[in-house]
Write a structure and sequence with these properties.
With about 90 residues, this protein is α+β, with helices and mostly antiparallel strands. It is about 25% helix and about 35% strand. The chain has one domain. The protein has two helices and four strands, in the order αβαβββ. The radius of gyration is 13 Å and the shape is globular.
């Protein structure tokens, strides 16, 4: 069972938003909370509760969340600003 947890955590870190170098691209800070509500915990598919926002710089946003079901805490990473041309 612990191996399954480790594998799911590894997969989550490689997914968009799992690490600072793999952020989820969003157009503005206004949509970060909406995107967090749409994501599910990789361990139990539970919903996240948002705990904190941090803006370490460079258009990166760190969002601390906790799963409402299994209580696992994690950081989700976002990059503000669209890469698409106007």
């Amino acid at each position: 069972m612990s191996r399954l947890v480790e594998e799911r955590e590894k997969l989550a870190s490689l997914s968009p938003g799992g690490r600072p170098d793999r952020p989820i691209e969003v157009d503005s800070a206004a949509v970060v909370e909406v995107r967090v509500r749409a994501l599910r915990c990789p361990q139990c598919e539970g919903e996240y509760r948002l705990e904190d926002h941090e803006a370490p710089g460079g258009g990166i946003r760190k969002v601390s969340v906790i799963c409402r079901l299994c209580q696992v805490r994690r950081a989700l990473w976002f990059r503000l600003g669209s890469l698409a041309p106007n």
